[in-house]
Amino acid sequence: MSNKTLTTAGGQPVPENQHSVTAGPRGPILISDTHLIEKLAHFNRERIPERVVHAKGAGAYGVLKITKDMSAYTLAKVFSEVGKETPLFLRFSTVAGEKGSADTERDPRGFAIKFYTEDGIWDVVGNNTPVFFERDPSKFPDFIHSQKRDPVTGYKNPVRMWDYWSQAPEALHQMTILFSDRGIPDGYRFMDGFGSHTFSFWNRKGERYWVKFHFKSKQGIKTLSPEKASELAGSDPDYATRDLFEAIERKEFPEWRFCVQIMPETDAEKYKVNPFDLTKVWSHKDYPLIEVGTLKLNRNPKNYFAEVEQAAFSPSNLVPGIGASPDKMLQGRLFAYPDAQRYRLGGNYQLIPVNRPRNSVNNYQRDGVRFDENGNYDNYEPNHFGGPVQDENAKEPPLRISGDADRYNSHLGNDDYSQAGDLYRLLTADARERLTSVIAGTMRTVPEDIVKKNLSHFSKCDPEYGKKIADKLGIKV
Predict the structure, then answer these.
(1) Where do the Catalase core domain residues begin and end (predicted)?
(2) Which domain holds residue 448?
(3) Is 54 noted as a catalytic residue in this protein?
């Protein structure tokens, strides 16, 4: 088998790849060794900026198959007929850790899906939890800073986390999930996924519905004990990444049931909780899960960097028939996510193959670092040269809003405790013991005044919840 000729990035043959050009056998090296300069310069730039969150991940390709007629709710082509199949790429991730962190850390897991639809990219950028720590995007950078490394010492400090949470009771619902057994999934195949936010559907009549997306694992739910997770962090830090890749290689293709909750638009005005609050769930009794399809992963990426690392998701990637909602966190992410991708991958990141739509793309964006021919028509609109024009059929119906523009305190009149307490009471007695033991364990180095503030929040969720943590810390409340 003959070898291919090694070339530079410009395609020129490389005459020597083992020794640099030097002035004499002992040097020094000459800058005229252009192959050496190119190798070093490219090496210095091999790492694109790490994601601020969701830095470490794994991904695979698959397909969504629709099993229920949804035309009454949405005109989105992805739902246009029973049996319809849409290709997709799904990236799983941990959230707070860096790219080299262990897969088995206690952390939410990202569950981001890129659907390659006939009308362009539709991204569902969610987690393995139906809620989140915050409901207002202005708090997101502060929350993440509290979870990251101490800027003085360079290591993670639980005091910072619990100090923040002592003043953020809206996080209690997500915290209860995080510190429960489900806080450490046994790999990515054995967990559910959620769009988490409230989105909207609209149909051909212009009627709007609010919707939540759920992905229920057909493999079942499996979790790791803290002891097993700690062991794997040392012996196999890429445990979840490896498990997903090898399962697909064995043709054990993981699947999820795709379900939705549907709320008529006018129900939002009278529902018992704010349906656009990311710290809250909708009762399944009020809005039952409707199974609409099956999601299957069936192909591994060929190149981790090109496909998993450069995969770029944004909830702003929405297609006709699927829209946003007044969810404040979602509204913030509509800007923040594509902005982060432009910083990380460049302004033309959606030309990278894994991010590129499968349908035709026609716009007036030009220049920057390109991966295509940069367009072959004038870059302004309107014009008289047959350039792309708007399509009024993609128009979203009006969104009914009212109220004065102001900075509203979301804690006033809002109940941050009941749903966390409901979740606590759903747990078995053994699961409550594990939950409270994990929380107490993370608080042992935290100053008592901060601990007591947090205990008061847990007690408001359920008196037993706070008391069990206090007893395990030896603190009288």
Answers:
(1) 7-389
(2) 418-473
(3) yes
- Domain C-terminal end among 356, 371, 391: 356
Residues 167 and 257 in one domain: yes
Distance from C-alpha of 432 to C-alpha of 464, rounded to nearest angstrom = 10
Sign of the torsion angle spanned by Cα atoms 396, 401, 406, 409:
negative
Q: List the CATH number of the domain containing 224.
A: 2.40.180.10
Out of 17, 127, 362, 384, which one is annotated catalytic? 127
* pLDDT of res. 370: 79
Terminal CA-CA length for the chain: 76
Pair 261, 158 in one domain: yes
Whether residue 83 is found in the same domain as residue 223: yes
Q: Block means of pLDDT (10 residues each) for the chain, length 477 residues?
A: 80 86 87 85 86 95 98 96 98 95 97 96 97 95 94 94 96 98 98 98 96 98 98 97 98 98 96 97 98 98 97 94 95 93 91 92 80 76 82 86 88 94 98 98 97 98 98 92
Helices 448-461 + 158-165 axis angle, to 10: 50
Of 326, 356, 386, which one is at a domain's C-terminal end? 356
Q: Answer whether residue 367 is part of any domain.
A: no
What is the reported pLDDT for 32? 87
- Is 460 found in the same domain as 316? no
The radius of gyration of the chain's CA atoms, rounded to the nearest angstrom, is: 25
DSSP 116-175: EETTEEEEEEEESSSS-S-SSGGGHHHHHHHHS--TTTSS--HHHHHHHHTT-GGGHHHH
Q: Compute the distance between CA of residue 470 and CA of residue 477 in angstroms, rounded to an integer.
A: 7
Task: Report the domain count for the chain.
Answer: 3
355 flagged as catalytic: no
On whether residue 393 sits in a domain, the answer given is no
Instruction: Classify residue 408 by burial, with Cβ atoms within 10 Å: 0-12, 13-18, 19+.
Output: exposed
- pLDDT value, residue 3: 81
Instruction: State how beta strands 322-323 and 199-202 pair.
Output: antiparallel
What token pair was written down for 345?
């991958």
